[in-house]
């Protein structure tokens, strides 16, 4: 009887040890490639008299996942694709051209922007955003869903454009702007879709 109890106890110990080893041993990693056609980065710029909205296309992107949690990502944005969505015709064309010149994003010199996620914990993204060759750390709340080989992510960051040397119409650097003053803070909203690929 004692031998039977001892054998049962031994089996139980082995089972617990095996379960613990299994949960801690393998690190399930995956890389998700961003679907550039289904993903965009939306922007909102505000001024005293109103606001403008638009988007930028994503050129490429990889999201790295370990044990079903995002560990890092690298998203490249095509700044030549800047679009305005609240205007039409001549006024739209003028604003797009203005956003591309040196007053704003200097697209001829800096055709690409990049966002590298360095950590994602408690639904908070931290990463390095590079615009016009200038890199600053940003953080903002985000939601990531992983279902099978599909990953979706969304989040909105509010950033101070002057940190990336975008000073046009800023009250920090120019006086007497009146209704022409543009707010330094603007919003960037990421909408990503990605599919798992073999590493």
Automatic annotation (TrEMBL):
- Carries keyword Signal? yes
Q: Show the InterPro entries listed in the entry.
A: Lipid/polyisoprenoid-bd_YceI (IPR007372), TTHA0802/YceI-like_sf (IPR036761)
The taxonomy runs: Bacteria, Pseudomonadati, Bacteroidota, Bacteroidia, Marinilabiliales
Residue stretches making up the Lipid/polyisoprenoid-binding YceI-like domain: 31-195
Q: This chain belongs to which protein, by name?
A: Lipid-binding protein
According to the record, the signal peptide region is 1-22
> What organism does this protein naturally occur in?
Draconibacterium orientale
Keyword annotations for this protein, in alphabetical order, are:
Signal
């Amino acid at each position: 009887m004692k031998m039977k109890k001892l054998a049962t106890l031994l089996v139980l110990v082995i089972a617990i040890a095996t379960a613990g080893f299994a949960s801690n041993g393998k690190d399930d990693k995956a890389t998700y490639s961003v679907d550039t056609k289904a993903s965009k980065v939306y922007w909102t710029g505000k001024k005293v008299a109103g606001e403008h909205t638009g988007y930028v296309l994503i050129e490429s992107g990889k999201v790295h996942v370990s044990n079903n949690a995002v560990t890092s990502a690298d998203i490249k944005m095509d700044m030549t694709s800047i679009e305005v969505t609240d205007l039409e015709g001549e006024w739209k064309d003028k604003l797009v051209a203005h956003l591309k010149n040196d007053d704003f994003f200097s697209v001829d010199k800096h055709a690409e922007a990049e966002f590298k996620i360095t950590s994602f914990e408690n639904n908070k993204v931290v990463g390095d955003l590079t615009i016009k060759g200038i890199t600053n750390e940003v953080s903002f709340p985000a939601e990531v869903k992983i279902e099978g080989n599909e990953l979706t992510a969304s989040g909105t960051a509010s950033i101070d454009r002057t940190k990336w040397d975008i000073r046009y119409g800023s009250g920090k650097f120019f006086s007497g702007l009146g209704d022409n003053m543009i707010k330094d803070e603007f919003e960037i909203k990421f909408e990503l879709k990605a599919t798992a690929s073999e590493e």
